[in-house]
Amino acid sequence: MTTETAAYVCSHVFDNTRPILLVSRAGGEWQCLCGDEHEAGEIPNVVGLNHLLERDPTLLELENLPEEWEAERASVSAPWLRRRSE
Questions:
Q1: CB 52 within 8 A of CB 14
Q2: Strand pairing partners for 84?
Q3: pLDDT digits (tens), the chain, 86 positions
Q4: Which of 1, 18, 62, 70 lies closest to 9 in space, CA to CA?
Q5: Pairing, β 81-84 against β 30-33
Q6: 44 burial via Cβ count (<10 Å: 0-12, 13-18, 19+)
Q7: Could you give phi then psi for residue 39, rounded to 5 degrees?
Q8: What global pTM score does this model have?
Q9: Distance of CA 19 to the CA centre of its chain
């Protein structure tokens, strides 16, 4: 994970209306999501990880998250739980 790395984010994370509670490496790409429901057809936004790290430094805990794995937490104060993506 480098700060210049691109990450896909949902509209809630992009608008900073919900925190990042789900990080996925499906397909090798970084996806930082709120873990909530979205409107059908929503198109993800792409941002630099540096912007997300400024907002949430705990993402650094996931810098060694392997491809095809994901990490989820119940709230911003909860620990990240890692698992292989389904």
A1: no
A2: 69
A3: 565 789 999 999 999 999 999 999 999 999 999 988 888 888 899 999 999 999 999 999 999 999 999 999 999 999 999 999 88
A4: 18
A5: unpaired
A6: middle
A7: -65, 145
A8: 0.91
A9: 9
